[in-house]
Design goal:
GO terms for molecular function: porin activity. It is a multi-pass membrane protein. The chain has 372 residues and is mainly beta. It is built from 4 helices and 22 strands. Strand 15 and strand 16 form a beta hairpin. The radius of gyration is 23 Å and the shape is globular.
């Protein structure tokens, strides 16, 4: 009996030692963000509302890693978005982890290989050059890409995240970093029932000596979408996306610029996209700056334009913002924006419907962000 007890004790110690060597960790994190909004939405339409995620999307997630030895780690991240004002899931109420859900391996010398729903290389390339950090609710860059526009309904847009994907991210090599993703077809039911084709996305960035530069290329294979006002399913065209991004820091000022060109393949004769003329190319340009005025105060400025080729359809605009941190985790912010739709353009900030073309949009926001 003494031998058995001694053996069991030794086995327990061995298991404890093995667990200590693995050094795994899991972190709960998140953001709670709410704001009050004034919107002048064309003509004489004015509204006041409470919304969520104007500075940083409200969300919570779990991320972790396990040290496998020899510089190799197992890593994962699952992250959901929600609306503080009503408690609902953000964007897609059928997806628990709408923002991210991936697992993979990371090596300090060879890079990271991950699988699941994750941010695209194109997103990582352009993110450092948007003063409003690609925010899905109030960034003018997001507004330009997510615009509901008759002329570009069949032209696919850069979604920022992709499901069913495999992505490789290289280590930083003398300031250069490579991103490569391939994603398989996926189907969603919100905001409209839609099937996307396979996607290839490649990105390369350089950062050093105050300079940031990035290039990205994405190709989305054809898909389909069912839009209630159309009598039949809309064929989404195979679309190529070309993105360039530049940033340069001078003291407290970070100058930022990005440009994207979205080029669909020709619609087949007789297809829904061809019949309604919904497959035009368009470009998005943004020029701005982020100013660290004080350790607690940040100012963001952006001028932008969305321009549809082959149509009188363009939207120039400007947006400014101020963030004031009162602690390491809590901040107040304000935003003010203006955009003018010309011709048939119907662009506004995400979540805002525009019922009439050739109108102006005016936005004013005050909000609060808390991180945990």
């Amino acid at each position: 009996m003494r031998f058995i007890r001694t053996s069991l004790s030794a086995a327990a110690l061995a298991l404890m030692a093995g667990g200590a060597a693995a050094q795994s960790s899991v972190t709960l994190y998140g953001v709670v963000d709410v704001f009050g909004q004034y919107l002048h939405n064309g003509g004489r339409t004015n509204s006041f509302s409470e919304r969520s995620g104007g500075n940083t999307g409200s969300m919570f997630g779990l991320k972790g890693s396990e040290d496998l030895g020899n510089g190799l780690k197992a890593v994962f991240d699952v992250e959901t978005g929600f609306n503080v004002n009503n408690g609902a899931l953000f964007a897609d109420t059928t997806a628990l982890f709408y923002r991210q859900a991936w697992v993979g391996l990371a090596h300090e010398k060879y890079g990271t290989l991950t699988f699941g729903r994750q941010y695209q290389p194109t997103f990582w390339i352009v993110y450092p050059t948007d003063p409003f950090r690609g925010n899905e609710v109030l960034s003018p860059l997001s507004a330009s890409l997510l615009a509901v526009d008759h002329n570009t309904l069949a032209t696919q847009y850069v979604t920022g995240r992709t499901s069913n994907s495999v992505m490789y991210r290289s280590p930083n090599l003398a300031g250069f970093q490579l991103y490569a993703m391939y994603a398989f077809a996926a189907t969603v039911t919100q905001p409209v029932p839609q099937t996307s084709g396979n996607t290839l996305d490649l990105g390369l960035s350089y950062s050093g000596y105050g300079l940031y530069a990035g290039l990205a290329y994405q190709y989305q294979h054809p898909g389909t979408a069912r839009i209630s006002v159309l009598p039949a399913a809309l064929n989404l065209l195979g679309t190529e996306h070309y993105t360039g991004a530049l940033g340069y820091r001078i003291g407290i000022v970070n100058l930022q610029f990005n440009y994207g060109y979205n080029k669909p393949h020709d619609a087949a004769a007789g297809s829904m996209a061809a019949l309604i003329g919904a497959g035009k190319s368009y470009s998005v340009m943004e020029l701005g700056a982020t100013i660290q005025a004080t350790p607690a105060d940040t100012i963001e400025i952006a001028g932008f334009q969305r321009n549809v080729r082959g149509a009188h359809d363009n939207t120039p605009g400007v947006q400014i913002g101020v963030d004031h941190s009162i602690s390491k985790r809590t901040a107040f912010y304000a935003r003010a924006g203006y955009m003018k739709n010309n011709g048939t353009a119907t662009m506004s900030w995400p979540g805002v419907s525009v019922t009439a073309p050739d109108t102006k949009q005016v936005l004013a926001v005050v909000g609060m962000t808390h991180r945990f």
